[in-house]
Amino acid sequence: MIGCDEVGRGAIAGPVAVGLGVFLPDVRRMPKGLRDSKLLSEQRREELHPEVLAWAPHSAVGLADNTEVDALGIIAGLGLAAVRAFETLVLQGVPIESAIVVLDGSHDWLTPALADWPASSRPRVMTRVKADRDCATVAAASVLAKVHRDRLMIDADGVHPGYDWPSNKGYASASHYAAIDLLGASALHRWSWLKQPALF
Fold it and tell me: DSSP label at 117?
C-alpha cells in the first residue's frame, strides 16, 4: 500500500508537494503520535520526520514549482509533482505496479496524471476522505511532504527576504499581502493567484 497526500495546494507562493509513504508487509509499528500533519505542531512534525523515514524508508516527495502551477493549473501541478514522486519510488525499486495507492480526499486527480504510463506499470488508486487522519501511510506522506516543503520555504527567506516565509510558508495572510504590496511579488509567487488590481 502507498499513502499519498499533498501540501501547498492553497498557498500563493512556493511549490506544491506530493508525499508518498510506502507500507511494506514487514513494516514495524508506526511512530507514536503519527497523524495528519495539519494536526501537528511544526516542532512535532520535525520530531516525527526522522521516525517516519525510518518507519517508511521507501518514501518520496515530488514537487511542482510555482511557475509550473501558474502554467498548468493546480490539479495538473499536483499530478506533475506526484509523477516525480512515483519516479523516485521506481528508482528505489518499489513495485508500484502491484500497489494500491490510498489518496486523501474524494477527487482522484492522480489517475489522469499517470495516464501516460503503460497500464501494466500503473498502481491502482483509491480515494478516501480523511485518509490523512485515519490511514497511517497517508499520515506519513502528509508529514514527509509538509516538512520537506516547509524547509524549502524557510530556506527561501534568505534568498527572497521580507515575506516572512518562516511563518507563513507561502500561504496567504494579511501580513503576506502587505509585504507583496510593499515589495512586489517575488520569483516564488504564483502570479496568477495573487489579487490583481483592476485594469482600466
Answer: S
Report the pLDDT value the prediction gives residue 199, as an integer from 0 to 100: 31
Write the DSSP symbol of residue 191: G
2 Cβ contact list (under 8 Å, min separation 6): 20, 21, 22, 23, 89, 94, 96, 99, 100, 101, 102, 123, 137
User: Above pLDDT 70, what percent of the chain?
Assistant: 92
**Residue 171 CA from chain centroid, whole number:** 14
As annotated, the binding site for a divalent metal cation includes: 5-6, 104
Say which DSSP state 105 is in. B
Annotated binding site: 5-6, 104
For residue 143, the model assigns a pLDDT of 93
pLDDT 10s digits, 29-68: 767 777 656 777 889 989 989 999 988 888 999 999 999 9
Q: How many CB atoms lie within 10 A of CB 124?
A: 10
Q: DSSP for 7-41, please give it.
A: E-TT-SBS-EEEEEEE--TT--PPPTT---GGGS-
Cα–Cα–Cα angle for 70, 166, 85, nearest 5°?
Answer: 50
The full set of domains in the chain, from first to last, is 2-193 (3.30.420.10)
Question: CA 179 to CA 76: how far, in whole Å?
Answer: 29
